Amino acid sequence: MTSTIDDPTMTPVRAESMRRLFSPSRMALVGASEKNLFSRRAFQQYQRVGAGRELFLVNNRSAQVHGVDTVPTCTAITGGIDCAYLLTPQHATSAALTDAIEAGARAAIVLSQGWAEQGGEGVKRQQELVDQARAADVLLLGPNHLGFVNLWERIAACGLGLDLPVEPGHLALVSQSGAVASSLVGYASRQGVRFSYVITTGNEAMVTVADAVGYLAEDENTKAIAVFAETIRKPAVFREAARRAAELGKAIVILKAGSSELAAQTAAAHTGALVGDDKVIDAVLRQDGVIRVKSVEDLICTGALCAEIGPLRAEGVGVLSVSGGACDLLADRGQDLGITFPSLSARTSARLEEILPAYAHPQNPLDVTGGALANPDVWRKGIEAFADEPEIGLIGVVTSLPTAGEPQRDDTFRAVGETCAATGVPGVIFPQIDQVQSDYVNEVKVASGVQHVMPSVERFVLAAAGLTQWSGWLRARSGRTGVAGVAGAEALGSPARVRLPGQGGPLSEQDARAVMTAAGVPMVPAELVGSRAEAVSAAAALGGSVVLKMCSGEVAHKTELGGVELDLEGPEAVSAAYDRIVARATSAGVRLDGVLVSPMRRGGLELLVGVTRDAEWGQVLAVAFGGALVEVLQDSALRVLPVGADDVREMLTELRGHRLLGGFRGSAPVDEDRLVEVILAVAELAQALGDEIESVEVNPLRVSGDEIEALDALITR
Amino acid sequence: MTSTIDDPTMTPVRAESMRRLFSPSRMALVGASEKNLFSRRAFQQYQRVGAGRELFLVNNRSAQVHGVDTVPTCTAITGGIDCAYLLTPQHATSAALTDAIEAGARAAIVLSQGWAEQGGEGVKRQQELVDQARAADVLLLGPNHLGFVNLWERIAACGLGLDLPVEPGHLALVSQSGAVASSLVGYASRQGVRFSYVITTGNEAMVTVADAVGYLAEDENTKAIAVFAETIRKPAVFREAARRAAELGKAIVILKAGSSELAAQTAAAHTGALVGDDKVIDAVLRQDGVIRVKSVEDLICTGALCAEIGPLRAEGVGVLSVSGGACDLLADRGQDLGITFPSLSARTSARLEEILPAYAHPQNPLDVTGGALANPDVWRKGIEAFADEPEIGLIGVVTSLPTAGEPQRDDTFRAVGETCAATGVPGVIFPQIDQVQSDYVNEVKVASGVQHVMPSVERFVLAAAGLTQWSGWLRARSGRTGVAGVAGAEALGSPARVRLPGQGGPLSEQDARAVMTAAGVPMVPAELVGSRAEAVSAAAALGGSVVLKMCSGEVAHKTELGGVELDLEGPEAVSAAYDRIVARATSAGVRLDGVLVSPMRRGGLELLVGVTRDAEWGQVLAVAFGGALVEVLQDSALRVLPVGADDVREMLTELRGHRLLGGFRGSAPVDEDRLVEVILAVAELAQALGDEIESVEVNPLRVSGDEIEALDALITR
Q1: What is the count of residue pairs from A and B with beta carbons less than 8 Å apart?
Q2: DSSP B228-277
Q3: What are phi and psi of B67, to 5 degrees?
Q4: What's chain A's average pLDDT?
């Protein structure tokens, strides 16, 4: 983790502070008032969730609010408080906070707007509030948000809508936006989803999404965490929280909205163009096993599936459906989304044939045909057969949700609930098309022991794709040779510090070559020459066709200056090329270190391997196909450093052109072990150089069977 | 269109026959019975939709069914019938049909299962039923489906669920699957979507999806058509229907489920590997402007948006939202899905600044902030400003849907409805997260004149992507130089028939070269030589480095036999290569026509241009990047022939590597006009050869600035 003892924005909020905030004993609602919608709502929620802690209403004008006696100030509360929920407008917040602190509060929830979200003066006002809080060791949640609920302890300090489900559950929700959180809890209530916590973080003056995720990962009632975020303010804290959640087998599902500023890009290195901010975040999330979704509905549905089901024994999905159309749609969408529906063993097929009509085909997804509605044994025997397939870790059942007076559908639920419980393979029921989950469905679900009910085929496939891929990632994680997440940095053996020659600007190719070679990157041979005659004799010594390149610390992209001459044969060609390069350098006003003479290489594949710095997430490794095609095809894979061999191997498989490495139309397969070593050498060099460099890049890295050789190298700082 | 007078499966059902089926005067429900769920449902639907036509219940055992007097047979109906809805089981269908025909029926709806869907004998039984019907000029709908409803004429002959909305609307729904149709109409009713027709086609013994779409395109109450299909049985009829719908400005939205067999592939031509069945269908749908969706929910939501809004004046979308989070999500998803949110002119920004809080930013999507709920003028002025932007053709408004007792949200609806009507730019309201459309919302919508309400941001972006892209396609269509759809085949000037030399098997490269050259495809020079000496002298005449290639009608892929020798310079190299090629041909048992000598080309880009035959859709043109990388990168674009210049130009822009053609890192831009001509020449040659060939392929077509030259050609038959 970045060392940031002095920078409170980069360290996690301490667990005991978070505990004081989210599980206070005595709370004050400051600014309570009949006229204030948020006051009414906060008090109603307090009552709805069960009034788990003592609450005092603070109002210095009315003796009673919401039917309860008030106190004029926090300091007037006998016995004091430990947390204050400030509904006061922005201008009255500081005074209210002072009062709350005097009354003993060590945590405060600040609802108001008018802070950093308005820019300029607002940023300053917010900083002053934080300074005031920090001086008194008080933790602030917000401002500009809608508070939180802690449902297992029946604590509410929030302005969320009254459709918030009050029965506690196992999904925690963290949202930067209060408005989005309100939509999310309303949708959750319509889908039978229950929460352990809902936390809105707003402007994140002190408590960020990363802090909340870290806290919730340790909460025993929370089995999965859903996150809506527009920015991730403490990247290292977030990654550590993700690591911990993985360790505990809890999934994090995120909807990351809005493109923030592009990562600081390096004009001098082509790698820069591959590293858009969102691509880096995407890479980090993949590295850390965080499930990324694209819609608010999927955030709730995928989060709830993960919370109810947890890690799977296997990544395959088995589906039984009353509708053949749904089977086709599942198969199509499953293929789009990377879900595996394992094909059935002969034994399972035989068992299924016994329960299906003669014309039906035993396959996965399985059309059980309409007969299953009349005969729940079809569900029971079908699920038992599927559960015996070791590659199936999750069972989906497509059927309409029951309404009162449809005993057939209740029977289906019972059959699914009982059989899944008996076999130990989790089962989920969902209808073909979006349906709201009625109270009746919830009752039948609970009574039948069905683990989870989802709104539709579409939501199921999207959520199951996330759950199965995460389960696979979690299993692979334990067996990895390299590192996953921040903590494993040591696994690389903390590369020793490397010093660069000269100072500032790009290194000349000759200098970059020396650094790369020392780091274990195989470079194409090259001789630096200072005259036409030396060039000719170097070329003769190499034999065959050669390449001449301008060598200067003043030029990052020599091709653009005409500084590269390819495929030269014979003394005349070499002499003429040498002269041209020198002339071009002169006319461009470039101070030459000399001219490099290298053998001409042909054939094979070209890769780009580069490391650049992302302002938020640190050094990012990019591996891409293509030489000159890099920028066009954008066939690249990214990882935040550090990485291990398995990460690099995984990057290679993510490339669309990966098959090319396995040998193509008669070319020899590339030695992937060696290729991984070379890529790791570049990554480790970049780490060793650390802040001293902007970027390290090998482009192209030529690979052809077991020949792996860097044809050019660039180091910028 | 394929000439298939003798093949009734390839001709469209005549409009007057369809009219007899879907708008009969007197219908019989044959097999009506209290005990039969489908009978009860059919009768209830008949009553629910308004009993627009006379209906007789046929039962030979009970004098009354569903409270109505029955007749024992159709022939017992005084005055006869013109359409029969047969609920009889499979084994009793033929007799029931005979009775119906005798009573005058010229159309019949066959509900039962037990036909072609069960294979084997079932296929035979279905054919017998069709023969019986055809002999009496009777049109059959089904079997194995759930009938149809015609809502404007209040005619129902269906087994769809009783949540089918009975008020007529402008979206027609066609579904092969009855079960899926049932789900779809239930969802539609929850989302306030209304239908003109719902038609299920089942096994499509006579009436296919293509026939239904063609019929509905001409229906004046139908403004858009939603289709759920697993196969498209009459490709040419479907394309003609799509052409007609486009002509009338009616969108077709399709959910194509299930992957049918891969298109008949040509092992001898690499193009084959690019032409999977689903890719061809995807290309056809794009060519014909059919909007393809991926989920059942989107089928309804996109269909309904198109039906209510119709073609747009411009493809840009303007959004006003009470939630900043929704703006971010819209921008993110819009980018994923190809929606344009035009940026605002300075004038519009200034107008918006007047109505927004000081800290808010005028942009699109626009966060109007919570203030708009209290002040509907924000909506009015905001929409007026957006409507003055000529690039905006559709306005979206994000706000929660109203419930009774929330007058603020009613005001929002009124402001949106009135302002959109006044400006003439259509407006759609939708909440941030999935919500069902209550009866109250429907009332408010109608009262306020809001054109359309959708369930969520996510459904809106998916539907708006379809509508805007279709609107753009429709506009471009009128100005195209080439052809769109089947009817325009003449536009190419019906290429004259070309005869190929020899018979059967692939052509030798020399023969293929001659055919290509005659067709206007520029081929690299080549001389066919029959001896070492001829090879040497041909090489000397060309000068520089040469290529030698095995030439034989017995070899399609000469590289695999070692039949290509590259980069040969000097008599010795040429002689040796000649000998090696002859030796390899001999040892492989290949009869040589000779050896081709061509100049060696370097640099530039390589394309593949090929035409293969798809069993369903006919000749398919593929354009791809890559030489040897073709199969790995799969960067290809497909079109069904015939195509025009604009189609080919569009194909080039679909390639990921398209930017390369514009010149890359100093290389000259490719002459795209010339490239299009050459690709069209290949396409026209394939059309002219017609059934005589299996495939025509140029691979690689080398392009470098204005040099465009085919380096190899393959014609197989």
Answers
A1: 149
A2: EES--S-HHHHHHHHHHHHHTT-EEEEEE-S--PPPP--TT-THHHH--H
A3: 75, 15
A4: 89
Return the residue in B191, B279, B295, B636 with the most chain A beta carbons within 10 A, the one to mutate for interface testing. Answer: B295
For residue B688, give both structure tokens: 């002219």
Could you give the CA distance from residue A215 to residue A18 in angstroms, rounded to a whole number? 7
pLDDT category of residue B70 using cuts at 50, 70 and 90: very high
Q: What angle do CA A195, A197, A202 make, to 5 degrees?
A: 125
**In degrees, to the nearest 5, what angle opens at C-alpha B443 toward C-alphas B439 and B447?**
170
Verify whether the Cβ–Cβ distance A183 to B432 is below 8 Å: yes
Q: Is residue A45 within 8 Å of residue A164, measured between CB atoms?
A: yes
Spell out which residues of chain B touch residue A255, defining contact as CB-CB under 8 Å. Answer: 329
For CA atoms B124, B129, B130, B131, give the dihedral sign.
positive
Domains and CATH numbers, chain A: 15-220 (3.40.50.720), 311-478 (3.40.50.261), 527-599 (3.30.1490.20), 605-716 (3.30.470.20)
Q: Which amino acid is at A621?
A: L
> Which residue in B345, B437, B419 sits closest to B381, CA to CA?
B419
Nearest to A433 among B186, B259, B432 (CB): B186
Strands of A536-604 (E only): list them.
546-551, 564-568, 594-599
CB contact under 8 A, B359 and A118: yes
Give the minimum alpha-carbon distance from B494 to chain A in angstroms, rounded to a whole number.
38
The packing angle between helices B407-423 and B439-448, to 10°, is 40
A575-612 b/e (C-beta count within 10 Å ≥ 16 → b): bebbeebbebbeeeebebbbbbbbbbbeebbbbbbbbb
Q: Following CA atoms B531, B533, B535, B539 in sequence, which dihedral angle do they give, to the nearest 10 degrees?
A: -170
Number of other CB atoms surrounding residue A407 within 10 Å = 9
Give the whole-angstrom CA distance, residue B118 versus residue B112: 12
Q: What angle do CA B51, B55, B60 make, to 5 degrees?
A: 145
β-bridge pairing A366-367 and A316-321: parallel
> What is the DSSP secondary structure assignment for residue A255, as one 8-state letter?
E
Confidence class of residue B628 from pLDDT cuts 50, 70 and 90? low
Q: How confident is the model at residue B325, as a pLDDT?
A: 85
Neighbours of B405 (CB within 10 A): 8
Residue in B closest to A369 by C-alpha: B179
Chain A residue with minimum CA distance to B461: A295
Q: Do A187 and B434 touch (CB under 8 A)?
A: yes
- Taken in order A549, A551, A554, A556, the sign of the CA dihedral is positive
| Closest listed residue to residue B433, CA positions, set A161, A184, A198 | A184
User: How many residues are listed for chain B in this entry?
Assistant: 717
Tell whether the model's pLDDT for residue A267 goes beyond 70: no
Which among A623, A709, A627 is positioned nearest to B605, based on CA atoms?
A: A627
- Phi, psi at residue B564, to the nearest 5°? -125, 125
Neighbouring CB atoms inside 10 A of B283's CB total 23
Task: Please report which residue ranges of B401-454 form alpha helices under DSSP H.
Answer: 407-423, 439-448
pLDDT at A702: 94
The position carrying tokens 């007037």 is A76
pLDDT at residue A522, as a whole number: 97
- State the nearest Cα–Cα gap between A150 and chain B, in angstroms: 23
Strands A427-430 and A546-551: unpaired
Locate tokens 């009219």: which residue? Answer: B19
Residue that has been written with the tokens 């005031």 in this structure:
A132
* Paired sense of beta strands B251-256 and B224-229, if any: parallel
With beta carbons less than 8 A apart as the criterion, state whether B451 and B418 touch: no
Q: What is the pTM of this model?
A: 0.91
